[in-house]
What does this fold into?
Amino acid sequence: MLCRALLSFRDSARLVCDVCRHRWRPVRPPWCARCGQPEPLFGPCRLCAEWPAAFGAARSAVWLDAGARDAVHALKYGGLPRIATDLAAAMAGLDVPGRASGLLVPVPLSRARFRERGYNQSERLARALGRRWRRPVVDLLVRTRDTAAQTALTPEARLANVAGAFQVRNGECGMRSERPLENSAPRIPHSALERPLVLVDDVFTTGATLAEAARALEQAGAGTVSAVTFGRAVVPDFT
It folds into this structure.
């Protein structure tokens, strides 16, 4: 329980009380139709200008300020994977292509971070959201290398930091190829290629990580990729 409030027996499985939940600030339009970033629409949106063509939409449930930040911290660092159920409840109303017919794809962690946490918070979010949307979760992606912390990086530096960080699993055996053939694209199951894919992550900052994950899916042959996150960070003014 984040605030240590007492919950009724009916809500005893929850970790976020109604008061804390109502303090989360929803992300509302007007926003960029593609990346969902609320901003004055004066010319092209710089956050999604370099996204791959298949990456069509990203939406976030709430702003990542005090209460929501505490919830994400509990999920990622506090050893409370069960809180993903509460966060997914806030994400359930997000509307992106693939909500009704697609596959949910969690953004993977590096091996080192997975060993440190014992679980992937994005995978826990995806499964909790999948129960609400009644959509399957598929681990199509692996992270091929760890990346530096992105907190102080500009949007352009973030893109460079995560470039090539993801690879699609081999469609036949469920594992990525350690030595893919030159000029050959990784394969994913044909049934997945026929459906929209919805990336699931905990936080959207500039969208660099999601864009790179979408790029890996696009290069493997996916046609429609969107993304949903629980939190959206306020992007600093790097100009």
